[in-house]
Amino acid sequence: MLARKSIIPEEFGLPGLASRMPRKPVFRDRVNKARFIAKNGSCNLAHKNIREQGRFLQDVFTTLVDLKWRFTLVIFTTTFVSSWLLFAMSWWLVAFAHGDLDPERQNGTHCVTDVKSFTSAFLFSIEVQVTIGFGGRMITEQCPTAITLLIMQNIVGLIVNAVMLGCIFMKTAQSNRRAETLIFSRHAVIAVRNNRLCFMIRIGDLRKSMIIGATVRLQVVRKTTTPEGEVIPIHQIDVQTESAVASNSLFLLAPLIICHIIDKNSPLYDLSAMELQCSDLEVIVILEGVVETTGITTQARTSYVSEEIQWGHRFVPIVTEEEGVYSVDYSKFGNTVKVATPRCSARELDEKPSILIQTLQKSELSHQNSLRKRNSMRRNNSMRKGGSSGNLRRNNSALAMPKVQFFTPTDGGQSLNAVT
């Protein structure tokens, strides 16, 4: 038995219509991957399988400075206690070789007075190296070996003090501590400025002491493949900024907006708003300068991935003039506002400048329509308030002058007379 044909032709069915409908480009979901620079500026990089560990010992001072505080304090304490114990053993051996530990020996022939045990030798070692000098123990002229040992301990003690105290000082005065007060906006924005599509971030300094010769560098890091098939996992591409074109340094007196014009030389030139959401690029921002109070070079870093880049937004102004003083409101440091921005790439915008004009015209019309709606709503509200107030007045007048009826008797009977 043959199957009955459908009344609707096949070309007008759901499969036929679906095949002929224009499909929008489908972008793959962005795979979550680790970022190279964290938001706090730390490098997300792990070193493995380092065979030449001895190279770290060739630069002991830098290795001690780079260690964590708990390891530095343990090494600091262990070094001093070990040096005291080592020279305490040396003083005890000198006293033992000279016969000072014999209780029948007179005090005038001792190398070091009142050194009669290892404990007293340890206390004397601490007095010599730390230069406390309680006065109960002292070296005499009877033993040249003790004089030589005293000179050696003084020299070694000075070296240990210089290295350990210098390490502690450098850890407390590291340049990255100054970078804690250099802040970046949480998000980056892409909007139109001076008829060009621009990538913008905001930077600021919370301290009154300025950063001298501040410079900002932008880099785009992405995974690329060369025409020869070589895979470069960390391909760093320098990004030019307006400040770098105009001068070599920034005057970071108040928060500044760093702007990168997306032109033909920009790695963001071919990215549209949709493609940016699916890309795996990372924009690294590096702020360098010299601290005014200490003269030490400092560096602050952060990065922005595609989820942290807002297309069609602009930073709100935060600097105002109040009573002759410029005031900065840091509560609005990262606030942005939506603006009219084409969703296409910078390349398409350069090829078709009419897209920008149409976008601006649409935004102007929508702005005018919103203003008209607001004005009409205000008029309606005012009319409603006026009508309600008129009704209230009428009601009040009616309540103020009520009708009163008086009943007066007549000769022929009772009649009703209404008096107002």
Automatic annotation (TrEMBL):
The terms under GO molecular function for this entry are: ATP-activated inward rectifier potassium channel activity
Indicate the segments forming the Inward rectifier potassium channel C-terminal domain, all copies: 182-352
- Ranges for the region named Disordered are 364-395
> Cellular component per GO?
monoatomic ion channel complex; plasma membrane
> Keywords for this entry?
Ion channel, Ion transport, Membrane, Phosphoprotein, Potassium, Potassium transport, Transmembrane, Transmembrane helix, Transport, Voltage-gated channel
Transport in keyword set: yes
Q: Where in the cell is it found?
A: Membrane
Q: Which InterPro entries match?
A: Ig_E-set, IRK_C, K_chnl_inward-rec_Kir, K_chnl_inward-rec_Kir6.1, K_chnl_inward-rec_Kir_cyto, Kir_TM
Catalytically driven reaction(s): K(+)(in) = K(+)(out)
Q: Provide the site residues for: Role in the control of polyamine-mediated channel gating and in the blocking by intracellular magnesium.
A: N161
Q: PANTHER family of this UniProt entry? A: ATP-SENSITIVE INWARD RECTIFIER POTASSIUM CHANNEL 8, INWARD RECTIFIER POTASSIUM CHANNEL
Q: What is this protein called?
A: Potassium inwardly rectifying channel subfamily J member 8
Gene (UniProt) = KCNJ8
